[in-house]
Amino acid sequence: MFRFLHAADLHLDSPLKGLELSPEAPLEQIRGAARRALENLVSLAIHEEVSFILLAGDLYDGDWRDFNTGLFFNRQMARLKEKGIPVIAISGNHDAASQITKSLRPPDNVKLLSTRRPETYHLKELNVAIHGQGFASRAVTDNLSSSYPQAIPGCFNIGLLHTALTGREGHEPYAPGTVDDLRSKGYKYWALGHVHQREVVLTDPWILFPGTIQGRHIREQGAKGGTLVTVAEGEVTTAEHRDLDVLRWCLCRIDITGVATLEELYAPLQKGLQSALKSGDGRPVIARIELVGKSAVHRELQREPEKWIGEINGMAAALGGAGLWIEKVKFRTGESLETDHLMTDDSPIGGILRMVATLQGGAERLAQMDPEIGGFLAKLPAELKGGDDPFLPDDERQWGEICDDVRELLTARLLHAGGAR
Fold it and tell me: Which residue segment(s) compose the domain that 257 sits in?
């Protein structure tokens, strides 16, 4: 029997983009979270006395320029060397973008597999054969797995691959391939990387994404870590997730449906914030708060959003101390009275709401209304369409949310200006 640790997507020293935390937030602690998670990974491997570690790509984060990032990684690998634990790794798309990565020599217990062709690494004392190929360039669109060798008879065969398989939402379709492609090789375990959410794709054979070791933004919520794999008599007996993260992200939707007064609003806010704090399992939590539902206090929220953002931040500070931080507050509430009938009114409000409704359908619908809109959207700055919380012109769901927000905001402001109907 032996055990190994499978991890991926370390993204050491990844910059935090678009983080709207208060000045009191421990930003240095947050920025160092990926390093602390790697320290946890190494400590777990030593504590569990694993036979080896597999790292399935994206050790670093793009074209990093601080040599200290690589030196930190090497120091952690040296801790493993002292315990006789080898590390077999491949480069991912982010690693391929870095010139420093290519020139930095890791300790000799780290084996980085070839980027030119599939390479097989033997752990002879365990009778294990690990097959893998890293990314030679940032965008690899070939099916790398198709060139991997067939399983070596009599060995426990593992495939190490950075891939999106047939595609995963939010991830570039790099090194595409199918489950059948992987199964055809006859390996017992496929150690995948690139997808930041843990996913057990198959258990016969085992095909598994461990997810990232530390969430970096609101789209990477919940527990993050690696997978501890136990092998007995040539078969995988367990593949257990182990937490490695040091802080967590939480999207907290607070339903205020039926709240009649501002005083009544505090109870659901308190409950929602308590739930967000609890999701950290004792770790600090960075939460995005979304208020949803139809309520009589909708107009007050829309009129004074900054005031309520401050109230929510104050409640979070009182509740969690240094353990709960608000990344952003979004108001997706509506009038408790039914406003659909306003759209049929022969009134300025009705006309405006009908115009907003025509925006449903996204950029394609807008282009039909105004042929120049495509050119306008094409000129939007790259940072608006990229990053961790991007505006995607072709995403109909996102356009729907924008239209809902505009409709509710206009209704609240216009009714307030003209008095209740």
Answer: 247-336
Q: What's the rounded Cα separation, in Å, for the pair 6 and 188? A: 14
Tokens matching residue 315: 């409640």
Work out the angle between the directed axes of helices 305-320 and 262-278 (0-180°, nearest 10): 50
CB of 228 closer than 8 Å to CB of 50: yes
Residues 168 and 252 in one domain: no
Q: How far, in Å, are 259, 289, 297 from residue 268 at the CA level? A: 9, 12, 13
Nearest one of 58, 18, 7 to 249, comparing CA atoms: 18
Helix (H) or strand (E) holding 266: helix 262-278
Same domain, 7 and 146: yes
CATH number (domain holding residue 72)? 3.60.21.10
Domain boundary among 336, 355, 388: 336
Q: 354 and 343, same structural domain?
A: yes
Q: What pLDDT digit, counting tens, does each position of 374-390 carry? A: 666 666 665 555 555 56
Q: How far is CA 283 from CA 11, 163, 248, 329, 363, in A?
A: 20, 30, 7, 21, 41
Convert the pLDDT of each residue in 19-66 to its tens digit.
Answer: 666 666 777 778 899 999 999 999 999 999 999 999 999 998 866 566
Please spell the DSSP secondary structure of 365-389, one letter per residue: HHHHH-TTHHHHHHTS-HHHHSSSS
Mean of pLDDT values over 330-349 = 68
Q: Tell me how crowded residue 391 is: count the other CB atoms within 10 A of its CB.
A: 16
**Same-domain check for residues 160 and 209:** yes
Ordered alpha helix ranges (H), 104-213: 179-183
The number of domains in the chain is 3
Element holding 399 (H helix, E strand): helix 396-418
**How far apart, in whole angstroms, are the C-alpha atoms of residue 182 and residue 132?**
12
**367 and 373 in contact (C-beta within 8 Å)?**
yes
Rounded-to-integer distance, Cα 363 and Cα 374, Å: 7
Alpha-carbon distance 243 to 172, whole Å? 25
Q: Which two tokens stand for residue 342?
A: 């306003």
**DSSP string for residues in 87-119:** EEEE--HHHHT-HHHHHPPPPTTEEE--SSS-E
**332, 355: one domain:** no
Residue 360 shares a structural domain with residue 390: yes
On the 0-12 / 13-18 / 19+ scale of CB atoms within 10 A, 223 is: middle
pLDDT per residue over 300-313, tens digit each? 998 999 999 999 99
Cβ 49 vs Cβ 64: under 8 Å: no
